[in-house]
Amino acid sequence: MYYVADMSGAVMLWEGESVESVTQEVQKLPMVKEGILACEVLPLKSYTGFASLFAQPQ
User: Fold this and answer.
1) Which residues contact residue 20 at a Cβ distance below 8 angstroms, ignoring those fewer than 6 apart?
2) Residue range of the domain that includes 45
3) Among candidate residues 17, 10, 18, the one with its CA nearest the CA of residue 39
4) Does residue 36 lie within any of the structural domains?
5) Whole-number Å distance between alpha carbons of 52 and 58
6) Could you report the per-residue pLDDT of 7-48, keeping only the tens digit for each?
7) What's the Cα-to-Cα distance from 45 to each of 19, 33, 41, rounded to whole Å?
8) Which has the least CB within 10 A, 3, 9, 17, 31?
9) Within 13 Å and on the Cβ side, how many CA atoms surround 36?
10) How far lies 48's CA from each of 21, 51, 52, 56, 58, in Å?
């Protein structure tokens, strides 16, 4: 977990089979179940730009 730099929230990285499966697991967290914690699930994908940074000139 990481804090947002201005301390306005936190970020948790969570791997799963799908957005739906992660959402289902997040809903099981005690603070979410009690309505104390609101969560937003944002799907991520791998960054592919590194290859172009290290490409050999031809």
Assistant:
1) none
2) 2-53
3) 10
4) yes
5) 13
6) 999 999 999 999 999 999 999 999 999 999 999 999 998 888
7) 12, 28, 13
8) 17
9) 6
10) 25, 7, 8, 16, 20
Tokens of 30: 């005690």
Which one-letter DSSP state was computed for residue 49? T
Tokens of 19: 């957005």
Report the half-sphere exposure of 12 (CA within 13 A, side-chain side).
13
Quote the pLDDT of residue 7.
Answer: 93
Phi, psi of 30 (to 5 degrees): -55, -45
Query: Does residue 31 lie in a domain region?
Result: yes
- Site of tokens 């609101």: 38
Q: Look at the chain and report how many structural domains it folds into.
A: 1
